[in-house]
Design brief:
Elements: E1 13-14, E2 29-33, E3 39-40, E4 72-77, E5 80-85, E6 106-109, E7 117-122, E8 131-132, E9 135-136, E10 139-140, E11 148-150, E12 170-176, E13 180-186, E14 208-211, E15 216-221, E16 232-236, E17 242-245
Parallel strand pairs: 2-16
Antiparallel strand pairs: 1-3, 4-5, 6-7, 7-11, 8-9, 10-11, 12-13, 14-15, 15-17, 16-17
Amino acid sequence: MRHLLPFLFLCSCFAPAAKHNDKAPSDGGSRTTNGDAGPNLQPNPVDGGGADQGPVNTNCDPVAQSGCGTGQECTVLDNAITCAPAGNKPEAAPCAANTSQCAPGATCIDVSSTTPLCRTICKTDSECKASFGQEKSRCVTLSDFPVNLCSVPCNPIPEAGPSGCPASLSCVYTTLPSIGALTDCIKLGLGQDGSSCPNGVTDCAEGYTCNASVHRCRKLCRPDFVTDCDGQCLSQMGAAYGICIPAT
């Protein structure tokens, strides 16, 4: 089974302003910055396991779903684009990795090392139609994988309601340098406020992220909801979410 860490951003963390000491001033409330604060995500290495790149069926287009026979779909198997019997599982449904169980236009990939999901194959954001609340799916480039895949949008703030993720997965909020902020359903850890996160956001529980400046899990917050934090909500200018900074 092939294991890819979710869109290569799981070691990434929220990085506040360079001189911030992860403590809030006594006035509380929310704070925004002009771009030097916010979830700052870096690539995580890909698990080297799984099949090597196989021959690609150049007559098969996994986005247009062309080039395959009746009853088949163009998908990814053994890390190669190929035709296979068409599946019927919808986007974000659990599936068996490296099979063609997903409906045409999607592929089954294990991005959380525990729960493979059907993910829509894309070239640009225009192919990513899914949404959950205010969150929209984004087209993300994977390292060492022959196609781009759509993220699974979700709600990362438990106080705002259900995450929208399949059972056993949680919602993470992150950013990628090329496309900005997005949410996705992955397997998270158990760390809550103040817990160490040497491996990044995957060490933290749902509703938390890893503060890169101190390598501690911090609670996610909405800048306009003062009740989300006991201290202060630190967020990047215009960002939907920030992190709770403990009061001094």
